[in-house]
TrEMBL record:
Domain Transglutaminase-like: 98-143
Domain of life: Bacteria
This protein's name: Transglutaminase-like domain-containing protein
Pfam families: Transglut_core
InterPro entries, alphabetized: Papain-like_cys_pep_sf, Transglutaminase-like
UniProt source species: Streptomyces phaeofaciens
Length: 299
């Protein structure tokens, strides 16, 4: 049994469903197939920028609050409060959790782990939402029956026109954050083509640049070490534009991007400049900048 299987079959404090409150998260009640589990996730979550796709006006309070839930246990409690339907029963939009791509990926990861498939979430950039742009995005990485590792996008449904199987996203369609960093540092890509653009009318957000790619590398490294933070979480000295990047900032991420394997990545994560501390800064979409004390940091 390889290290991926041993390490990523175990739930983290973030992915742990805990007591699902009667929603049907028990052995034998969920499908084991990763694609069917992705369908379960899509029927439980609505992306907070996609109410229009479903002809649904998302209440403002849910836009503000749902996606601030860091833990799958919280996500499931919200679902339970809205309906007592079991997890495997499709929900209308008004009964769903209002989340982001990170929530789709983390719930999918949680269900995969719960049904015996090693999985983890990855932070990076998708090329299939906005032509010519690398959009900040999270996906699931899971161990396929043939022993290969595959990327899955549980958010993608029939409303998206993508030229690939969402359960096997090709590497040129989703760039892991370290790959994006290397491309930018080597002059093979424009850093301004990476980040967030306000395609869905969420708070007028537009953030791009090398500083944003750096944030993605840090979040991805944390997730690989069992700390699956929110997409707007950060820690340490504030770096919110390219002008704030120092030579040390660049050098630290260059070392991460040059790591020769996952053992080295785990060792690098012990660096206090990279590891997630007990208290972090959350640059929330609707409620401004907040200091947050995490209840759990690693598996």
């Amino acid at each position: 049994m390889d290290d991926f299987h041993l390490r990523y079959l175990k739930q983290t404090p973030y992915s742990d469903p805990g007591d699902s409150g009667g929603l049907g998260l028990r052995a034998g009640t969920l499908p084991r197939d990763p694609g069917r589990l992705a369908r379960v996730v899509r029927d439980l979550i609505i992306h907070r920028g996609e109410g229009g796709r479903f002809g649904h006006v998302i209440p403002e309070q849910r836009l503000r609050d749902d996606a601030e839930s860091r833990y799958v246990g919280e996500l499931l409690r919200i679902l339970r409060a809205r309906s007592d339907r079991p997890l495997t029963e499709p929900r209308p939009p008004e009964e769903r959790f209002v989340g982001t791509c990170r929530d789709f990926a983390l719930l999918h990861c949680s269900l995969l782990r719960a049904t015996g498939t090693p999985a983890r979430i990855r932070c990076g950039f998708a090329t299939y939402f906005d032509e010519g742009f690398h959009a900040d995005h999270w996906v699931t990485e899971y161990l396929a029956p043939d022993g290969s590792r595959r990327l899955a996008d549980p958010q993608v449904h029939h409303g998206y026109d993508v030229p690939f199987d969402p359960m096997d996203v090709p590497g040129d369609a989703f760039l892991r954050a370290v790959e994006a960093w290397r491309m930018c540092r080597e002059g093979r890509a424009d850093p301004e083509s990476f980040g967030v653009r306000d395609l869905n009318g969420i708070g007028g957000l537009t953030y791009t640049g090398l500083w944003f790619v750096r944030a993605g590398v840090r979040r991805d490294l944390a997730a690989l070490n069992g700390v699956e933070v929110l997409p707007w979480d950060d820690w340490g000295r504030a770096v919110l534009d390219d002008g704030s990047l120092t030579g040390e900032d660049l050098a630290v991420i260059d070392v991460v991007a040059a790591a020769s394997g996952e053992d080295e990545l785990r060792r690098l994560y012990e660096d206090p400049r990279l590891a997630v501390p007990d208290e972090i800064t959350s640059y929330t979409t609707y409620d401004g900048v907040r200091r947050v004390t995490l209840s759990a940091r690693r598996a």
